[in-house]
Amino acid sequence: MRLSRFFTLITLLLMSFSASANIGDTIDSAFAASTGWFVDLIFYPISIMGVGVPWIVGWLVIAAFVFTIYFGFIQFKGFGHSIALVKGDYSDPKDAGEVSHFQALATALSGTVGLGNIAGVAVAVSIGGAGATFWMILAGLLGMATKFTECTLGVKYRNEYEDGTVSGGPMYYLDKGFKERGLPGGKILAIFFSIFCIFGAMGGGNMFQANQAHAQITNVVGDYPGIITGLVMAAVVFAVIIGGLKSIARVTEKVVPFMGIGYVIIALIILITNYDKIAWAFGEIISGAFTESGIAGGVIGAIIQGFRRAAFSNEAGIGSAPIAHSAVRTKEPVTEGYVALLEPFIDTVIVCTMTALVIVITGQLVQDPQTGLYLLNEAGGIQTASGATDGVPITSAAFGSAFAWAPYALAVAVVLFAFSTMITWSYYGLKAWTYLFGEGKTKELIFKLLFCFFVIVGAASSLNAVLGFSDAALFAMGIFNIIGLYFLMPIVKREVQSYNQRLRSGEIKKYK
Amino acid sequence: MSVTYLVAYDGSDSAKRAAEFAAKQAKLSAAELHIVHVLEWSPYSFLTPDELAERHKRRTQELERANNHILKPLLDKLEESGYTATGEVQYGNPAKMLSQIADEKQADMIFAARSGDSSFASMMLGNVSSTLVQIATVPVTIVP
């Protein structure tokens, strides 16, 4: 019954799609004409020493810096406590069976660890050189303070319903937190955040993922129409989010963390087998971070690439993670903040750095043997040993130079990462959708059907303007979220002071 | 100094037999009988965002079902047959949880049904009763 309904739906989608595929270019140009200004606005470059920096990158990094200072370097001082919380040292055994800190962290991570860590980093070092890695790590470390702030608020202001389910996220803390402080405009920020969260979910959390997954599959098996990938992925997403086939989601949720761990292990093996070059690689990273290495834009270019990649990869400040973290069962919102600050650390400081190190150490970036400066290609990027210019192919070549099978494993990883990111973002988008339109089966179904439809669109098209817009929408979320965070950070400060005091006095018990 | 017997109970027929056997033994030695039902749970498992949001609701439902449909029928049945027993439902790793409760209650013995599962998976990965035998700090009686 469900199956037949599904096929009817797919046929309908196909019909509408085959019509739209023909006019794909028209859509794209129409989209470019109507939303181009918005994309330009979000990524508007500010000239710093002659190099254009998208202002949104500065917005996110400055916010991370402010929170780091305001909370007294909590990401370093509280790191040990974060680990203890994830291990369950402070969890009341009576609460067994509720969402643990570990589970909230793992789910939020599955939404962020993905293409950014594989493709994005490769783009960053292939433009910004090895030195970009240094700045990426720095931005990742700063971003930990942002996650701490937003996830504490996410738990504090979540909605708990009578049936025991919870809804949380920036829309709720912007709305309720501003009211509590007697500030105007919280509702408006929440509405704008939700609108862009829906666009971001459809775009960066969906179409972009489907598009890249298809690109990666064709890279390995050869070219074929994207609509096939789109239909298959849409069918699986449909089965999970509408059909309630939790088993598929559960399998991905189980496999993805292991793929992430496997990715780091393979990277480590490559590093260990090249142990004689590790010191050299770190030397390249440090010297490239502060001195001229021949890249476009010099040192500033390296800083921009590193910051940009960190911001794009760990999503600190975007406001997505608080939606997942708000489900945890805790009496203390601050504990979830502590746990969440590990996210940028794992995502950026560990996984992204591994990718960068493997690319550098396997000699993908071609240097002039005489001067030690990078040789540039026509596009202004660094020449790569394999000749690849795109993100995934560069990483693929780097891993492939050590293990012949690595590109295949990487293709599987990319598809699974893309899938888990989609599932997570379908939830983020849905929460924003229900915030705007209210909860209800039909309303939720409309969102989910739209979500499945955009999986097909994303995989089948090369709608650059559409993808550009959805990327911009994702970052637009960060504008509204961070404005809110600045106003609400005194509340977090009070929470954290009270918590730390009770922790010292022993009022908050350690169980293990 | 009272004697306490613990029974591992999962609602299966073999577990029912084990509980009845334990009840008889308890009566003979004037021991208190405590029935434990453990819901398999690991705080380190992976959940989807939907499952995160619904977890508290599901947990409430699971506990209610375990109490009303698994534990209570057994306690009622034992009472009908003239035995008195207490019971509890917990989340966790079954064998570890049983052993932990035995320690807390200072139980003298744990009764468990044999798993009756001789599959390869069970041999390789173990099952509740054989793990219990290995880790419990009190004598364990496996009832066939």
Please name the defining characteristics of this protein:
heterodimer, A: 512 residues, mainly alpha, two-stranded antiparallel sheet, 74% helix, globular, B: 144 residues, alpha/beta, five-stranded parallel sheet, 5 helices, 5 strands
Structure description:
The complex is a heterodimer of chains A (512) and B (144). With 512 residues, chain A is mostly helical. In chain A, 74% of the residues lie in helices and 2% in strands. In chain A, helix 8 (131-156) packs across helix 9 (170-180). The mean pLDDT of chain A is 86. Chain B is an alpha/beta fold and 144 residues long. Chain B has one domain (4-143): HUPs (Rossmann fold). Chain B has five helices and five strands. Chain B has helices at residues 13-28, 49-80, 94-104, 120-125, 128-135; strands spanning 4-8, 32-40, 86-92, 109-113, 140-143. The longest helix of chain B is centred in the middle third of the chain and has 32 residues, at 49-80. Chain B is globular. The A-B interface holds A 88, 91, 96-100, 102-104, 106-107, 110-111, 163-167, 240, 246, 249-250, 253-254, 256-257, 323-324, 327-329, 423-424, 427-428 and B 39, 41, 43-57, 59-60, 62-63, 90-92.
Treating each run of at least 4 consecutive H or I residues as one helix, how many helices of chain B?
5
Give the largest interface: A-B, 36 and 24 residues
Question: What does the average pLDDT of chain B come to?
Answer: 85
On the 0 to 100 scale, the average pLDDT of chain A is 86
Instruction: Count the beta strands of chain A.
Output: 4
Write down the secondary-structure element order of chain A.
HHEEHHHHHHEEHHHHHHHHHHHHH
* Major β-sheet annotation of chain B: 5 strands, parallel
Shape of chain B: globular
Number of strands of chain B: 5
Rg of chain A, alpha carbons: 22 Å
Q: Mind describing the biggest β-sheet of chain A? A: 2 strands, antiparallel
What is the CATH topology descriptor of chain B?
Answer: Rossmann fold
Structural class of chain A: mainly alpha
Beta content of chain A:
under 5%
